[in-house]
TrEMBL record:
<dbReference type="Pfam" id="PF14871">
    <property type="entry name" value="GHL6"/>
</dbReference>
<dbReference type="InterPro" id="IPR029062">
    <property type="entry name" value="Class_I_gatase-like"/>
</dbReference>
<protein>
    <recommendedName>
        <fullName>Family 10 glycosylhydrolase</fullName>
    </recommendedName>
</protein>
<dbReference type="InterPro" id="IPR017853">
    <property type="entry name" value="GH"/>
</dbReference>
<dbReference type="InterPro" id="IPR028212">
    <property type="entry name" value="GHL6"/>
</dbReference>
Length: 702
């Protein structure tokens, strides 16, 4: 165990400390912990899990140390103790990195009476009581509480304790604050009254989203500056989800956040097992070189919030291990220092041990996928946060189709469409990037002119960055498509018919047509484009005697063209990603996979053959490649918690060998042994005998 921690001694208390903070324990104290919890148990957890970093509750809503900041509420059970400081010292003796957690989202009565301006105001003008614990008050995240009071708390913690960072939870606010101060500042900047409800079409709502972004971005800089003024190596680390990056000024995040923490702690409702890895891809979509840490809860993440419960060990391992496969650092969180149910400790220790096993190989490598799905931040900003999941269905459908097709891929944010970022990929996919600026469209066209291939669907480039519909696609020439009318829908009982022989309509032997979409655009093919599928004109779905087509297929339903610069373009003028996400029709999965294979124009760099569902991640450096194969094959793949793990049967991996290189070694990192490898036609073929949860194939070149 000690060897895993010794690596930290080289970066302890340096600006690069976070680079080997790869396995995190988080303990979120509850108020009576000072009297009831066992610190020795937690020190043992640090050791058993081989954690090299810890995040501990310090203050904010409740302080777990003796605080001198006025109105900073100290736990009434603390007495003469300092449980935060004691665990900081214990962790440092184990050469662990330490981060102090603060939660600024609520205050007690004495603070609210003395500083009513710290309390969030409802739309009806009343102060907002806490929705879950009405004895306390919700704070106004956009005013003096976070810009005057909390910086004093942060500075006190950083001065008193040997820590590397301050981590803020629930710091972003909870909706619109209707205080006079917020209303005045907002109107001065944008000229609007505060919006009464989330509405993507309301100019006041859009303006408020921008105002909030500016206020919170400034807060990140202020808190980080306060930390660094006392401990120059340390940082303020805001807690955020992958989608949160679209809410902030990226230059401020780049300057102040050396690593990013994703607060997506587990699956909720119907959610795919690959969602953990997607979190990392979404951060890398904007900051490809920045370490990402994924928080995993030991409890279920359902809306009913059993926060002191324990989910199944297999479910915890699924979440942590899929994050590991995609290069995320591991972090588990436990609420309440008292542990009435210890069933989580061994699964977390096992998952962290797997993380430790693959780190030496993965840490020196960078993602190397040939394919990128464009993360459409410009489009998603036009949706209220609670409605955003509906807008993301297009992207999620393509995501799952690519997983099923066993194609390694990354995400790339449309906020960073630079030549350098785009040219990392041979193919980019725009599932429904409906809102794109002239500059973004120009960047995509330039990418295609340099030989890149593009797949797009539905409304991609039909709107500008403000959401206003254009008269023509911004990428019309690239698509080989002219906009005629639409969108139209929801339309039921729609079909698309195979047209001619084309690689995109292969594999449908015995079928003349397949299911179509539910939201359709009418377009005309241009530039000599091919149309592998045509729309079947609408016909009724009832009475059953009327369910037959009246007309022959007409109108382009899939458009494919050679760009003339070495790449290919495919445009699908209906909501194939969204409808695949909703229905999971096998014909739609095949259509997406066929389009990708044809647009690539070559055999993929990596292919994997075998049974089951495997989530792939490809990384490389000058010495070789590492292919992570994560076993998703489980009856509970789409909704947890997993009850039992089902080991995967043997897989055959084929990897393109770079020009001028040969295979020096094929190594199975988790199994810790050599793999059988053969070479044919410039490709290395490796047999992976089986995968329990995760295997990493490391091919070294010579």
């Amino acid at each position: 165990m000690l060897d895993a921690r010794r690596q930290n001694t080289g970066t302890l208390r340096t600006p690069d400390w976070f680079k080997d903070a790869t396995r995190w324990t988080q303990l979120t104290f509850v108020e009576d912990d000072p009297e009831k919890y066992d610190p020795a148990f937690w020190v043992d957890v640090f050791k058993r899990t081989r954690s090299n970093a810890v995040c501990l509750s310090a203050g904010g809503y409740i302080a777990y140390y003796p605080s001198d900041v006025p109105y900073h509420y100290v736990s009434k059970y603390l007495g003469g103790k300092d449980i935060f400081g004691a665990l900081v010292d214990a962790a440092r003796k184990l050469d662990m990195h330490v981060m102090a957690r603060v939660d600024p989202h609520a205050i007690h009565d004495d603070a609210a009476r003395a500083h009513p301006e710290w309390v969030m105001i409802n739309a009806d003008g009343t102060p907002r009581r806490h929705w879950a614990y009405p004895d306390v008050w919700v704070t106004n995240a956009y005013g003096d509480y976070n810009t005057v009071f909390m910086p004093e708390v942060v500075k006190e913690i950083v001065r008193k304790y040997d820590i590397d960072a301050v981590f803020a939870n629930r710091w972003q606010g909870h909706g619109v604050d209707y205080s006079e101060d917020s209303a005045h500042r907002f109107k001065d900047m944008f000229g609007h009254a505060l919006p009464k409800k989330p509405d993507a079409e309301d100019p006041a709502w859009q303006a408020w989203v921008q105002w909030r972004r500016r206020v919170l971005t400034d807060m990140i800089a202020q808190w980080d500056d306060a930390v660094k003024a006392i401990r120059p190596h340390a940082s303020f680390i805001p807690n955020m989800g992958g989608a949160s990056l679209m809410e902030f000024d990226l230059s401020v995040i780049a300057r102040h956040c050396p690593f990013l923490v994703v607060d997506h702690q587990g699956r909720k409702g119907l959610e795919l097992g690959w969602s953990a890895g997607r979190n990392g891809k979404r951060i890398r979509a904007t900051f490809p070189d920045r370490p990402v840490v994924l928080i995993t809860s030991i409890g279920p993440e359902e809306e009913y919030r059993w926060k002191d419960a324990v989910t199944s060990g297999e479910e915890m391992q699924l979440w942590i291990n899929d994050g590991t496969a995609h290069g995320l650092y591991a972090w588990f969180t436990k609420f309440n220092g008292v542990v009435p149910d210890e069933r989580w400790v061994e699964p977390v220790a096992d998952a962290f041990a797997l993380q430790a096993a693959v780190e030496p190989v993965l840490e020196s490598m960078k993602p190397a996928a040939e394919i990128a799905v464009i993360d459409p931040s410009t489009t998603l900003r036009h949706w209220a946060p609670e409605e955003r999941p509906n807008a993301e269905k297009h992207d999620l459908g393509f995501y799952h189709a690519l997983v099923e097709a066993r194609l390694p891929f990354e995400l790339l944010s449309d906020q960073v469409l630079t030549k350098e970022n785009l040219d990392r990929f041979k193919l980019i996919i725009l599932a429904n990037a409906s809102c794109l600026s002239d500059e973004q469209n120009a960047a995509i066209r330039a990418y295609a002119e340099r030989g890149g291939s593009v797949i797009a669907s539905y409304e991609t480039s039909l709107r500008d960055e403000t959401g206003r519909q254009r008269q023509e696609f911004g990428l019309s020439e690239l698509f080989g498509a002219k906009f005629v009318a639409g969108p139209r829908g929801i339309v039921k009982n729609t079909y698309v018919a195979l047209s001619g022989d084309h690689p995109i309509n292969e594999g449908y032997e015995g079928a003349e047509r397949i299911m179509g979409g539910t939201r359709l655009l009418h377009v005309e093919a241009t530039n000599g484009s091919k149309t592998p599928f045509l729309y079947v004109p609408d016909f009724p779905d009832l009475p059953m005697e009327e369910v037959y087509p009246r007309k022959a297929p007409e109108g382009a339903a899939v458009i494919a063209r050679e760009t003339g610069t070495g790449g290919r373009a495919v445009y699908i003028p209906w909501n194939i990603g969204e409808i695949f996400w909703e229905v999971f029709a096998v014909d739609h999965a095949r259509l997406i996979a066929n389009a990708v294979h044809w647009a690539l124009g070559k055999t993929p760099r990596v292919t994997v053959m075998g049974p089951g569902v495997v989530d792939l991640a490809l990384r490389e450096n000058s010495d070789g490649i590492a292919l992570s194969l994560f076993n998703l094959t489980n009856p509970m793949m789409m909704k947890g918690p997993i009850r039992e793990n089902y080991p995967l049967a043997a897989q055959t991996v084929s990897v393109e060998i770079p020009a001028g290189k040969s295979v020096a070694r094929a190594w199975l990192v988790v199994a810790d042994r050599a793999a059988n490898v053969s070479v044919k036609d410039g490709r290395a073929q490796v047999e992976v005998p089986g995968i329990e949860r995760l295997e990493v194939l490391h091919l070294s070149w010579k």
